[in-house]
Specification:
single chain, 394 residues, alpha/beta, Rossmann fold, 2 domains, 7-stranded parallel β-sheet, 6-stranded parallel β-sheet, 15 helices, 13 strands, transferase, UDP-glycosyltransferase activity, Glycosyltransferase_28, hexosyltransferase activity, UDP_glucos_trans
């Protein structure tokens, strides 16, 4: 009887639970993996908010809805703290609010494995309490030995106080976790190519760089270039995008170029605020970015890692306009690897924007480096390699 029960357990579909921060740059990078695992016969649930339930369902997972304390997907940048300590406080509050919700939601349906985003801290607690393995999914740069000394990182008294709050909460939940477990991972799939990682040679073997896991996003609208003119895409992402004056500079910079310009201004900006729109511009609050980039010749981006990887996958030269968080590090890396250039959002002039476009689209070095980067991305394994790692933990 026991053997029969054990064989039944082994042959049933594995239940894999995804958990992430409810934000485009954290949900989108993992949706391809969700679809791949479902196609391989696994049962996937995804703990998320109402904002992202449609995308999750379209990928084949069952949404497990919860209420988040974080700003929603259409929130203004001002709702997100710029200081690291304040952000850590916000994520601690989120974890404390979400853990009990998911404990209840999964009470009768425990997963066999949790795949979690770098900001899905609730997964750390739940995997410890449920005694199930976990796999981190990182869409950005990861921890490496000596990172504090390399970048001169020092923790202020305020930062240490917040870290102590994490340790206290972890202990209250009956776990042996500490704050350092938030930053480091025993097993992690990184959705960038290793060469884009700072000091990639110093990253532990527990981190596997598979490159971006991009798939067709059926939940997004289709898009087709209207004619044979080259396409310029302009987007500052989904959070820090209320930059009316910058968009006006773009209008002045590219109004008389023989390009088709697709500019996404975000939910918090009314295109009417920008004044007269030149005929070669298509200005929207949102665009199906991956589809547009597949036909683009240049990309002005805030250098969020999601958009950066999408651009590199399609060999599109980048003009980075970083706004916050890791975007400044990404923008610097774009320049160092000669994949594009960087400009300052506040001080850049229309003339400088136009010169930057000319630079990145005429440089033979940038063209060759983009081709090399795409080759590395394709050779990193992507979805197939990531799915194999997931299955090895079941």
């Amino acid at each position: 009887m026991a053997d029969t029960a054990q064989n039944s357990y082994r042959t049933r579909p594995a239940h894999i639970a995804f958990m992430s921060m409810p934000a485009h740059g954290h949900v989108n990078p993992g949706l391809g993996l969700v679809a791949e695992l479902v196609a391989r016969g696994h049962r996937v649930t995804y703990a998320t908010t109402d904002d992202f339930a449609p995308q999750v369902a379209e990928a084949g997972a069952t949404p497990v809805r919860y209420t988040s304390t974080l700003p929603g997907s259409s929130a203004d940048a001002q709702e997100w703290p710029e200081e690291q300590v304040a952000a850590q406080e916000m994520f601690l509050e989120e974890m404390m609010a979400v853990v009990p919700q998911l404990e209840q939601a999964y009470a009768a349906d425990r997963p066999d494995l949790i795949v979690y985003d770098v900001a899905g801290f609730q997964a750390l607690v739940l995997s410890e309490k449920w005694q199930v393995p976990r796999l981190q999914l990182s869409p950005t740069h990861v921890y490496f030995e000596g990172i504090e000394e390399t970048f001169g990182i020092e923790f202020s008294p305020e930062a240490l106080a917040v870290q102590a709050k994490y340790d206290e909460y972890f202990a209250q939940q009956g776990t042996e976790l500490v704050f350092r477990d938030v930053e480091k991972s025993n097993r992690c799939v990184v959705t960038i190519p290793r060469s884009f990682q700072y000091f990639g040679e110093r990253v532990s073997d527990s981190y596997t760089f598979v490159g971006p896991m991009l798939t067709e996003r059926a939940f997004q609208d289709d898009w087709q270039a209207p004619d044979s003119r080259p396409v310029l895409v302009i987007s500052l992402g989904s959070a820090y995008n209320n930059r009316v004056e910058f968009y006006r500079k773009c209008l002045r910079a590219f109004a008389d170029l023989d390009w088709h310009v697709v500019m996404s201004v975000g939910r918090s900006t009314d295109p009417a605020e920008l004044g007269e729109i030149p005929p070669n511009f298509d200005v929207r609050q949102w665009i199906p970015q991956l589809r547009v980039l597949s036909q683009a010749s240049a990309f002005i981006t805030h250098a969020g890692m999601g958009g950066t990887m999408e651009g590199l996958y399609h060999e599109v030269p980048l003009i980075a306009v970083p706004q916050a968080a890791d975007q400044f590090m990404n923008a610097a890396r774009i320049g160092e690897l000669q994949l594009g250039t960087q400009v300052d959002c506040e001080s850049v002039t229309p003339e400088q924007l136009r010169a930057a476009l000319e630079q990145v689209t005429s440089s033979e070095v940038i063209r060759l480096r983009l081709k090399e980067m795409r080759r590395e991305i394709l050779e990193s394994g992507g979805l197939r390699r990531a799915a194999e790692i997931v299955e090895s933990l079941l």
